Amino acid sequence: MVSKKKASVVVDVVKKPPLKTKEYEKELRRLHVELVKLQQWVVSKGLKVCIVFEGRDGAGKGGTIKAITERVSPRVFRVVALPAPTDKEKTQLYFQRYVPHLPSAGEIVIFDRSWYNRAGVERVMGFCTPEQVEKFLDGAPVMEKSMVDAGIILLKYWLEVTPKEQERRLRDRINDGRKIWKLSPMDVKSFNLWDEYTVARDAMFAATDTAWAPWFVARSEDKKRVRLNIISHLLTQIPYKEIHVDPVELPKRKIGKVKPTNYPFRFVAEKF
After folding, report:
1. Helix (H, G, I), strand (E, B) or coil at 48
2. Which of 61, 67, 108, 202 has its Cβ near the most Cβ atoms within 10 Å?
3. Angstrom distance (rounded) from CA 29 to CA 161
4. Is the CB of residue 61 less than 8 Å from the CB of residue 227?
5. Structure letter (DSSP) for residue 57
6. Contacts made by residues 190-196, CB under 8 angstroms, sequence distance 24+
7. Which tens digits make up the pLDDT trace of 121-139?
8. In this predicted model, what pLDDT tens digit does every residue of 29-68 receive, in sequence order?
9. In this structure, are residues 94 and 100 in contact, taking their beta carbons and an 8 Å threshold?
10. Contact 15, 221 (CB under 8 A)
11. DSSP count for the chain of H helices, then E strands
12. What distance in Å separates the CA atoms of residue 33 and residue 38, rounded to the nearest whole number?
């Protein structure tokens, strides 16, 4: 049953010291091993997993998804980040463009933003009407119930960041030439709409936080901690076992029967 209670996210907690890089990398390595085990289990059992990541600009969605996927197969862990809808897609049923990307057996699909664009950025930026938002909030639980009934394991994560930390990250994108591409004109327009996004978020939670597809909120003030927390949580939501794999041994290799070639290779300059 859909909960209609007023949604609220509390972020005022005791701030923990930053996680040390060595400690983070050690724990991430352990979790990566578990993700590989999960991957093998999903393929073996033909499971269908769909993971949705939502949150404000700068909340850390991209970094978290990268941490999840950097040591697993992209053929199993498939990331979907759809661009703005085309003119044709704008005339379709709203959920229609997302359905082809849902997981088949043996796949884990991660949506870097999803159909919840309508409840967030489209609503706040005026890209849709209030009536369209209302229809979406009424229809999303129904669609997600049909997904779950069809055997899809659906996980929805909201990354919660404070205004102060969000601003720090957005300014860091401006000042770091490696990150400037992350700052879109939409991010700049959204910067002064914090309260509007809060209203939209709470309405989304109230309408779509269901028994069959609940929202999980992760505090993302510390990027390293939120990545570890989400991966750890994710692993608890999909029961899995380690698949036995026979030990692999490389055969003896015979080298030296072919003489070195004198072809004039164009070697890359070794500047480092």
Report:
1. strand
2. 108
3. 25
4. no
5. T
6. 190/56, 190/57, 190/121, 190/124, 190/125, 191/57, 191/167, 193/124, 193/125, 194/56, 194/163, 196/124
7. 999 999 999 999 999 999 9
8. 999 999 999 999 999 999 999 999 999 999 999 999 999 9
9. no
10. yes
11. 9, 5
12. 9
Angle CA(16)–CA(17)–CA(21) in degrees, nearest 5?
125
In which element (H, E) is residue 155 found? strand 152-160
What span, in angstroms and rounded, lies between the C-alpha atoms of 217 and 197? Answer: 16
Q: How far is CA 253 from CA 246, 256, 258, 259, in A?
A: 21, 10, 13, 16
* Pairwise CA distance, residues 204 & 5, whole Å: 11
- Res 10: pLDDT: 46
Query: Side chain identity at 159, as an amino acid letter?
Result: L
81-87 long-range contacts, CB within 8 A, separation 24+: 81/111, 81/112, 81/113, 82/113
pTM, full prediction: 0.89
Helix (H, G, I), strand (E, B) or coil at 259: coil
Contact 95, 115 (CB under 8 A): yes
Q: What is the pLDDT of residue 250?
A: 92
Ramachandran region, residue 183 (left: φ > 0; alpha: ψ -120 to 50; beta: rest): beta
In the three-class reduction of DSSP (H, G, I as helix; E, B as strand; rest coil), residue 217 is classed as strand
Give the confidence band of 6 by pLDDT, cuts at 50, 70, 90.
Answer: very low
Alpha carbons within 13 angstroms on the beta-carbon side of residue 173 total: 17
Structure-token pair, residue 255: 């080298």
